[in-house]
Amino acid sequence: MNAERLRFAIDKGGLTLPSEGRIALMGALAEDGLPIKAERCEIIQTFRPEVDAWQSQGAALATALNGPYAAVIVTLPRARDLAETWIARAEEAAAPGGLVVVNGAKTDGIESIAKALKGKVAVQGQVSKAHGKCLWFTAGAALADWARPAMARNASGDMTAPGVFSADGPDPASQALAEVLPDTLKGVVADLGAGWGWLSREILKRPAVKHLHLVEAEQTALDCARLNVSDPRAEFHWADATRWAPQRGLDVVVMNPPFHVGRKADPKLGQAFVAAAARILAPHGQLWMVANRHLPYEVALAHLFREHSEIAGNSKFKILHAARPTRQRR
Q1: Where does the Methyltransferase small domain lie (predicted)?
Q2: Please, which pLDDT band fits residue 327 given cuts at 50, 70 and 90?
């Protein structure tokens, strides 16, 4: 949809990209492809699955803007604070007189962003297509107040960043899981989808944990975790948790897996985390996980583990324990 809208703006909507100079694409999705010749494009991505997908296409990649650019095209992220921050950074990174293009779906907040932009900049053009909008303006210095620090401390004193999951404080589901993790947890452990590190710190309170792998796909969240988790037993991995593999089978996996792709709930994502846990655990290994009450993970657990049960929960969450994976696909 984002690609359809952007190409419509270029082909029929009056959007003319600069004929020379580099063009940055912030948050672009690999499945959408490139709107112009690859040699002019630099993809700005910090989400590992998208980085891997773009690399397989041979695209030029960076994790942060390094201007000046002739144009910066922003694919609107879901979080409002992150969206404003990206657009402000895009304006700053565009060469004087460069172009900033903002492309997003209604479900990601493009309507409110477009309204706010029109109160700050002179929008040169706009198209509506595929349940969203694409608009563009000449870079100046109008959006400095939209820029937020790359990281800041939340109310509990932890470092988080715009757009990071549960940035204001620990997620209630992770708190519920931490409350029932046994004090006897031991060995080599992985926290799949570690986020900014709150649950990892709880795991490391167990003295028999020898080593903890924090596996997180969002680089920004992992950078926060590096600051929030100072225990020398911690090792940090910027990786897609569904594909990551340790050198040897683990004793324990702990996780609060994501279950959204964009705004759409997709249980298959959490099921992929369950499959990954079964794959990376040693034959004696154990899985501890939390899930929203309605999510159907029990079938996957029954298929991939010899033992599984719900050990705690409430009307919102269920705490699941599984042991002895049946399929070793390492």
Answers
A1: 160-320
A2: low
Domains 2-146 and 153-325 share a fold: yes
> Could you tell me the residue ranges of all domains in the chain?
2-146, 153-325
Domain 153-325 annotated CATH 3.40.50.150: yes
* Angle, CA 131 vertex, CA 125 and CA 136 arms, to 5°: 20
* C-alpha dist (Å) from residue 305 to 144, 159, 308, 317, 324: 52, 36, 7, 21, 6
At residue 154 the predicted structure's pLDDT band, cuts being 50, 70 and 90, is: very high
| CB under 8 A, 24+ apart: contacts of 177-186 | 177/254, 177/256, 177/288, 177/289, 177/290, 177/319, 178/202, 178/203, 179/312, 180/288, 180/311, 180/312, 180/319, 181/206, 181/254, 181/288, 182/206, 184/208, 185/209, 185/252, 186/210, 186/251, 186/252
Beta-bridged to residue 234, according to DSSP, are 212
CATH of domain 2-146: 3.40.50.150
330 pLDDT band, cuts 50/70/90, is very low
Q: Check: CB of residue 214 under 8 Å from CB of residue 237.
A: yes
Rounded-to-integer distance, Cα 54 and Cα 57, Å: 5
